[in-house]
């Protein structure tokens, strides 16, 4: 213990302040999976990972494209002539072909209804890097951003850990499918002002993580009107824009801006990546697209800490310049996501489990309120203990997403193969008693995992989800992949 304390004294406050956000049930589920991962033959009783928002369902299409287009890589005989140029390229703006390809792709994902200027694209190391970059540009330590709940648990890490900004939840409820209302925004804003907190902006995720829903045009217009009236920034996380698999169609804030007569564009910024749309999070392609010239200029300077490698830029530029492939990929990806979503949710309906109707994303918002022994967040965690330890499914409890109501759980459906889906469904059916007639008893649960199943939803200084703890000693921490 003394040695550990001495080691901590040698490190910085940021490195040791515990605000990275690992002590959360969201990440505890990852640890449970990492300690006992499911494998169909080597560990068939292990934990199935359903807390990971990854999208490998259509990666075979990209693999086929790579085989047919060897010029897209500098590591092939056909593309090696570009090696020297790519290996020495260091411009913070990024390869022109990369920015042009990305701007064109963003337009395609939004149905061609808006156009994007390649010169407004600022690179970030994945969405995490892009989120932190925009916060460094917009907020000082102690400044706050409103964020509608439920929201992505790792926002505390991405947006607050090193920037020392704060998050203030905007409470949303199931009575209207967790839609963001003007009244809720005003209430959260006024409470912050009364508490002498400087509100610098509002962050929205559209499509929503964890709800899997898209915002309608009127809601977006109301939000833009709100931030203009308050003269605060609007950061729109649109990283799931290309995962819409059924109607209603996706409406981007960029589309709404075109229709509003009075709109201060300097206040609006978009965070985007290819991690979800294309299913390539390991390539770390994230960007900030800002309508504010100063944010673009200053953000580009900061982007030197998280540039996309030029080898990746080269590959992405080639891939996205193939219009025929992009259109075919988006259509087929939507078809596969819809098929998986429909199969999963219909099977759940057979055992009387309902979900919030969704049309996008790689997950759904599952309603287990009827299974709670207590209609509280403590009851939610009791049920989650059983699901993670007895049923052996890593789903994420709503309290980790700062949900205002107990009993909701996020379930990721796109990160596993068909066979694993069926195993997961079989476990769920057994759990609710439709096959065995013997649902798991809460009193039978005995923890054999060193997990911190806290139900506390807020930390003491940022009014955000409880995600405060030192780093995990695990050699392959799930936090570096958390989505």
Automatic annotation (TrEMBL):
What are its E.C. numbers?
4.4.1.14
Start and end residues of each stretch annotated as Disordered:
464-483
How this chain assembles, per its entry, is: Homodimer.
Domain (Aminotransferase class I/classII large): residue spans on this chain? 48-428
Task: Indicate what this protein is called per its UniProt record.
Answer: 1-aminocyclopropane-1-carboxylate synthase
Residues folding into a coiled coil are: none
Gene3D superfamilies, per this entry? Aspartate Aminotransferase, domain 1, Type I PLP-dependent aspartate aminotransferase-like (Major domain)
PROSITE patterns hit by this protein: AA_TRANSFER_CLASS_1 (PS00105)
Checking CDD domains in the record gives:
AAT_like
**What is the reaction catalyzed?**
S-adenosyl-L-methionine = 1-aminocyclopropane-1-carboxylate + S-methyl-5'-thioadenosine + H(+)
Pathway this chain belongs to: Alkene biosynthesis; ethylene biosynthesis via S-adenosyl-L-methionine; ethylene from S-adenosyl-L-methionine: step 1/2
Top enzyme class: lyase
Annotated keywords: Ethylene biosynthesis, Fruit ripening, Pyridoxal phosphate, S-adenosyl-L-methionine
BP GO terms, sorted: ethylene biosynthetic process; fruit ripening
Q: What's the domain of life for this entry?
A: Eukaryota
What is the similarity comment for this entry?
Belongs to the class-I pyridoxal-phosphate-dependent aminotransferase family.
Q: Which InterPro entries match?
A: Aminotransferase_I/II_large, Ethylene_sulfur-biosynth, NHTrfase_class1_PyrdxlP-BS, PyrdxlP-dep_Trfase, PyrdxlP-dep_Trfase_major, PyrdxlP-dep_Trfase_small
Q: GO molecular-function annotation terms?
A: 1-aminocyclopropane-1-carboxylate synthase activity; pyridoxal phosphate binding; transaminase activity
Reply yes or no: does the keyword S-adenosyl-L-methionine apply.
yes
């Amino acid at each position: 213990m003394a040695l550990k304390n001495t080691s901590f004294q040698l490190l910085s406050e940021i490195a040791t302040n515990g605000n990275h956000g690992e002590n959360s049930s969201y990440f505890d589920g990852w640890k449970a999976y990492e300690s006992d991962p499911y494998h169909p033959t080597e560990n068939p009783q292990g934990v199935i990972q359903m807390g990971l928002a990854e999208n490998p369902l259509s990666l075979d299409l990209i693999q086929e494209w790579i085989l047919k287009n060897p010029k897209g890589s500098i590591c092939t005989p056909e593309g090696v002539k570009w090696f020297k140029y790519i290996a020495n390229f260091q411009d913070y703006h990024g390869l022109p072909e990369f920015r042009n390809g990305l701007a064109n792709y963003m337009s395609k994902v939004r149905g061609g209804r808006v156009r994007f200027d390649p010169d407004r694209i600022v690179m970030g190391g994945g969405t995490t890097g892009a989120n932190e970059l925009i916060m460094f540009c917009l907020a000082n330590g102690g400044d706050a951003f409103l964020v509608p709940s439920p929201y992505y648990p790792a926002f505390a890490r991405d947006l607050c850990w090193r920037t020392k900004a704060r998050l203030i939840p905007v409470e949303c409820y199931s009575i209207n499918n967790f839609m963001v209302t003007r009244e809720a925004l005003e209430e959260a804003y006024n409470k912050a002002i009364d508490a002498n907190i400087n509100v610098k902006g509002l962050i929205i995720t559209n499509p929503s993580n964890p709800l899997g829903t898209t915002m309608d045009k009127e809601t977006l217009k109301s939000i833009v009107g709100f931030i203009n009236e308050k003269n605060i920034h609007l950061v729109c996380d649109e990283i799931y824009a290309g995962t819409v698999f059924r109607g209603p169609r996706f409406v981007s804030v960029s589309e709404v801006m075109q229709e509003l007569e009075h709109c201060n564009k300097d206040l609006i910024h978009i965070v985007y990546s290819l991690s979800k749309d294309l299913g390539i999070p390991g390539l770390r392609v994230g960007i900030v697209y800002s309508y504010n010239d100063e944010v673009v200029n200053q953000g580009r300077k900061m982007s030197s800490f998280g540039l996309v490698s030029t080898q990746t830029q080269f590959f992405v530029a080639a891939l996205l310049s193939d219009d025929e492939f992009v259109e075919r990929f988006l259509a087929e990806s939507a078809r596969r996501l819809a098929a998986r979503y429909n199969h999963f949710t219909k099977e759940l309906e057979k055992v009387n489990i309902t979900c919030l109707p969704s049309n996008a994303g790689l997950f759904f918002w599952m309603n287990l309120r009827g299974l709670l022994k207590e209609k509280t967040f403590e009851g939610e965690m009791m049920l989650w203990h059983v699901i993670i330890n007895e049923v052996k499914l890593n789903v994420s409890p709503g309290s980790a997403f700062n949900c205002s109501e107990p009993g909701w759980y996020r379930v990721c459906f796109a990160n596993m193969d068909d066979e694993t889906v069926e195993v997961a469904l079989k476990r769920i059916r057994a759990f609710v008693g439709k096959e065995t007639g013997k649902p798991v008893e809460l009193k039978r649960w005995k923890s054999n995992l060193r997990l911190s199943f806290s139900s506390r939803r807020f930390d003491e200084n940022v009014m955000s989800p409880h995600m405060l703890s030192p780093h995990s000693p695990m050699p392959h921490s799930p936090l570096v992949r958390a989505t």
